[in-house]
Design brief:
alpha+beta, Rieske Iron-sulfur Protein, Naphthalene 1,2-dioxygenase Alpha Subunit, Chain A, domain 1, 2 domains, eight-stranded antiparallel β-sheet, four-stranded antiparallel β-sheet, 5 helices
């Protein structure tokens, strides 16, 4: 329970109602089949399936007795509820109620509930429970044939999605949290950088020295362990994050996609993917890169999963900020503005 004494809307929980007016990742496109499955976003379970290639997403609840539709089955272009056999078409309209017999008049309210918008982009299924206030997030590297993709397995953790986004955008923790991976020997001071905002999104570019343990040239003595790296952060509210890493000495670009699904007030599902243009098509090196990124996320979760209060304060006077915090301050401003936009409309 929070002891925050200000406006409750200035504390972001995983199920803050204003976040329903945004695009959220729900699952990976590869997880969706012609058999109904259930995925939960902000305490609401959704049934997801394909019919002839078309993506279908509805609230996972039959309007009759609220049975989970994910227990049912797809029959051609329809979905049949497992409890009483009610059948729904691709628009969510009930087209058959077995207990009424053939030719019966069906209740007009016998319809499935659907999110306001559904889409797919860069291998993810996105939904907006209510009309979204921003464009659908995209990721350019996924459309670039020079990049090779690798997916981390979904990670389910106790966490706050806002705090995880804050952590992803934060640069001052590298030398401390990631000492066993890329942070070893890294400078602790964060130099100046700028943040460029565009609506409910922003981009920030920063260069720093880091330990490039993945570079084969280090083992060969061609390049030093500590090298220069350019970081380009791209954020789209509320929980779509991208980091492009350009390796100045070694060459190549590593793009990390970080997509957060707030399942309920205490649980987040982390979907993360890598796009690399420096692996020469090597599946073995991509597998190693994915394992390395898993280790990095696990380092972050040693702290993020242990927060006592799973909430992100959006009142900038509620925490102490320094110059290194420009990205995470902008995160709070954008989320606060989104809440204000929704509450004022």
């Amino acid at each position: 329970m929070s002891n925050y004494s200000g406006d409750v809307s200035l504390v972001l929980t995983n199920v803050h109602p204003a976040m329903a007016h945004a695009w959220h990742p729900l699952c990976r496109s590869s997880e969706v089949t012609n058999s109904p499955q259930s995925f939960t976003l902000m305490d609401i379970p959704y049934v997801v399936y394909r019919q002839g290639g078309a993506l279908r997403v509805f609230v996972d609840q039959c309007p009759h007795r609220r049975a989970p539709l994910s227990l049912g089955s797809c029959e051609g272009a329809t979905l049949r509820c497992a409890y009483h056999g009610w059948v729904f078409d691709g628009d969510g309209t009930c087209v058959e109620i077995p207990s009424l017999g053939a030719g019966a008049t069906l209740p007009p309210r016998a319809r499935l509930s659907a999110p306001a918008a559904v889409a797919e982009s860069h291998g993810m299924v996105f939904i907006a429970p209510q009309a979204p206030r921003m464009p659908l997030p995209t990721l350019a590297a996924d459309r670039d044939p020079h990049f090779m993709r690798g997916d981390l397995e979904p990670i389910v953790t106790r966490a706050n999605a806002g705090l995880l986004a804050d952590n992803f955008l934060d640069m001052a923790h590298f030398a401390f949290i990631h000492a066993e991976t890329f942070g070893a020997g890294e400078a602790t001071m964060v130099g100046p950088y700028e943040v460029e905002r565009d609506g409910y999104a922003f981009e920030a570019v920063y260069e720093h020295d880091f330990a490039n343990r993945e570079d084969p040239g280090v083992a060969l003595g061609i390049r030093p362990l500590v090298q220069r790296r350019r970081l380009t952060y791209r954020y789209s509210a509320p929980y779509h994050l991208e980091l492009a890493l350009d390796f100045v000495e070694a060459g190549g670009t590593n793009v990390i996609g970080f997509f957060l699904v707030p399942r309920d007030n205490e649980t987040v599902v982390i979907y993360s993917s890598l796009w690399r243009n420096d692996l020469d098509g090597s599946l073995e090196r991509m597998a190693e890169a994915v394992d390395y990124e898993v280790a990095v996320v696990e380092e972050d979760l040693r702290v993020q999963s242990r927060y006592h209060r799973l909430e992100l304060p959006l009142d900038l006077t509620d925490e102490i900020h320094v110059k290194a915090d420009k990205t995470t301050i902008e995160l709070r401003r954008i989320l606060r503005d989104l809440i204000a936009d929704v509450e004022e409309s």
